[in-house]
Amino acid sequence: MSLLAVRDLSARYGDFQALFGVSLEAAEGELVAVIGANGAGKSTLLRALAGAIPSSRGAVELGGRSVSGLPAETLVGLGMVLVPEGRKIFPSLTVEENLQVGAYRGRPGPWTLERVHALFPVLRERRAEPGTNLSGGEQQMLAIGRGLMANPRLLLVDEISLGLAPLVIRRLYEVLDAIRAEGTTLVVVEQDVSQVLAVAQRVYCLRKGAVSLEGVPAQLGRAQIAAAYFGT
Amino acid sequence: MGVIGPNGAGKTTALNVLAGRLRPDRGRVVYQGRDISGTPAHARTRAGIALTHQIPHPFEAMTVFENVLVGATHGGGRAERAAYAACHEALELAGLVAKANLRAGELTLLERKRLELARALATNPRVLLLDEIAGGLTEPEVLAMVEVIRRVRGRGVAIIWIEHIVHALRSAVDRLVAINFGATLIDGPPDMVMASPEVQRVYLGIDVA
């Protein structure tokens, strides 16, 4: 059964329509990749799902229950959690407090401070410093750790590997595969298409605010993906 | 020159010291034979050192052109007429002429990155410090950005470029510096640096026997 079912979702910023009837599904324990050029609507899609911006039309179901129009803080309690673009670390809070904020409206589950620390040891080493004292890449780790602290059923990650060194990206993808195997569903926006397609069970390509291609990565050819990506 | 290193190694900190946003505890920054260690950031920009930031923060309510104009006047110290010409040139180089009259808040990520670069170029730099200017761009966008950076370099601008997209760096730099724990690990031709077991271990995460 699909954990996430999105039908005909549209969203706009004022007069500017950014999404045009996007439909998407993610089964429990799947890693779903969302790819597409900048400006295609990937971040808008994630933000609309997480309740960070209102959707103007369409239906979103989480675990068979309609969650359309619910505010972000309610969605977090239901297990829909966003790691936003641009990290959005609270500058007035320490590294550890930023992680604890993630758990505040979250659910009980396997993700604890200890487990996030094991994933990103630097977050333990620098736990008492202000969150924004961290380097850019470390702040990205903190943003992902904060999302995990909510014990999501569905984790939406925008620009997952932005600013991370190759070693960290490699470890992160190993961990994603492990948490996916434990039943957490992931929807990931990633610019490195070959990287994410190697681990995704399903891919959606967005172009100009609509789905231009969907499928199982292994069954899609490079030419097919390129055509969906560029619209050629 | 490209700069690589693990997260938290000190790459951005090093650029901030060069740009005058941070003071060094020890050591000197010498530019054109002159010690500028105590020179404030705005004066360094006037002297020809420009920095781009990881996450662009343009003046969102102003147009793209107006944003670049701030770089040319406040940053570059140019008077009106010269400033306009410099803006046009910077927008042209960065590939943003068609967006010049849009509000900066309406730009996509790629365009914001291009604006970040155009703002720096408008100050007429001799040294350009790039902090992950290609981060978050898709593969074709990365290649387009590499082309722009090559063109800037072709004009005789020295470039120090931090990036995790190693293949992009390698296609544009003569020299690569890897840093770790706030110190230089290795400095040399890109092929040599990337072949270093130490770099492969601490940066790429490849186990070396």
How do you describe this structure in short?
Chain A is an alpha/beta fold and 232 residues long. In chain A, 34% of the residues lie in helices and 27% in strands.
Q: What name is given to the CATH topology of chain A? A: Rossmann fold
Query: What is the SS-derived class of chain B?
Result: alpha/beta
- SSE string of chain B, helices as H and strands as E: EHEEHEHHHEHEHEEHH
Instruction: Please state the average pLDDT score of chain A.
Output: 91
What is the CATH superfamily of chain B? Answer: P-loop containing nucleotide triphosphate hydrolases
Work out the strand percent of chain A.
25-35%
Q: Largest sheet of chain A, if any?
A: 6 strands, mixed
Biggest sheet, spatial arrangement of strands of chain B: 4-5-6-1-7-8
- The N- and C-terminal alpha carbons of chain A lie at a distance of 34 Å
Second-tier CATH architecture of chain B:
3-Layer(aba) Sandwich
Structure write-up:
The complex is a heterodimer of chains A (232) and B (209). Chain A is an alpha/beta fold. Chain A has helices spanning 42-50, 72-78, 95-104, 113-119, 122-125, 136-148, 166-181, 193-197, 222-230; strands at residues 2-13, 16-27, 31-35, 57-62, 65-66, 80-83, 154-157, 185-189, 202-207, 210-215. Chain A is built from nine helices and ten strands. Chain A starts with a strand and ends with a helix. Chain B is an alpha/beta fold and 209 residues long. In chain B, helix 3 packs across helix 4 (80-94). Chain B is globular, with a radius of gyration of 17 Å. Chains A and B meet through helix 6 and helix 7 of A and helix 1, helix 5, helix 6 and helix 9 of B.
